[in-house]
Write a structure and sequence with these properties.
Layout (H helix, E strand, L loop, with lengths): L17 H34 L7 E8 L8 E5 L5 E6 L9 E5 L10 E3 L4 E4 L4 E3 L5 E3 H6 L5 E2 L1 E4 L2 E7 L10
Antiparallel strand pairs: 1-11, 2-3, 3-4, 4-9, 5-6, 6-7, 7-8, 10-11
The structure holds FE2/S2 (inorganic) cluster.
């Protein structure tokens, strides 16, 4: 064999064998099916979010305390990530979430600090003798006259721990300024 034999153009390869063709067809079909599944999955996810919007997407659960550390009549001041002042009070001894309540501790009248009075079964604002029932509804003083109740926050108990639902900080409007 001369050196020039290597330089000769090679004869074109024949058509792919049936096995090779079958392999490529199967691979192409799988790739197409995968693409369709991914597309429909994305579409289904978008449709699900549209049809069943999660009202809690902009909120999160934050640990407050373990149940055994709060006795009936106890209250706990709590600060949310956005700076809101909360008071969490234990009003019952059933051992579930219905024992607890979380309310804004800022009086809706002029913003004084409201605290839980277990012996009087009420939340009380000392500034102008504003009083609120155990659910935060105004019952006496200027807040009652104006129908201003305390804002309430959802709570939940999970494995003996108490959690409060709070708004997420990154949902606050940062476009201003
Ligand atoms: S500030 Fe609370 S009653 Fe006035």
């Amino acid at each position: 064999m001369s050196k020039h034999d290597d330089d000769k153009p090679k004869a074109p390869a024949g058509p792919p064998s049936p096995e090779r063709r079958s392999f490529f067809t199967t691979a192409a079909n799988l790739a197409m099916a995968g693409g369709l599944v991914a597309s429909y999955g994305t579409l289904a996810g978008m449709a699900g979010r549209f049809l069943y919007p999660s009202k809690n997407r902009d909120r999160a659960w934050m640990y407050v305390a373990d149940l055994v550390s709060m006795k009936v009549g106890d209250s706990l001041p709590f600060k949310l990530p956005d700076g809101s002042a909360i008071v969490v009070a234990r009003q019952g001894e059933r051992g579930d979430v219905s024992d607890f309540i979380a309310l804004s501790s800022v009086c809706p009248h002029l913003g004084c600090h409201v605290h839980w009075e277990a012996n009087n079964n009420r939340f009380f604002c000392p500034c102008h003798n504003g009083a609120f029932d155990p659910t935060g509804r105004a019952t006496e003083g200027p807040p009652a006259a104006a129908g201003q109740s305390l804002g309430r926050y959802p709570l939940r108990v999970d494995r003996g721990l108490l959690f409060i639902e709070v708004p997420l900080e990154d949902n606050q409007d940062t476009s201003a300024g």
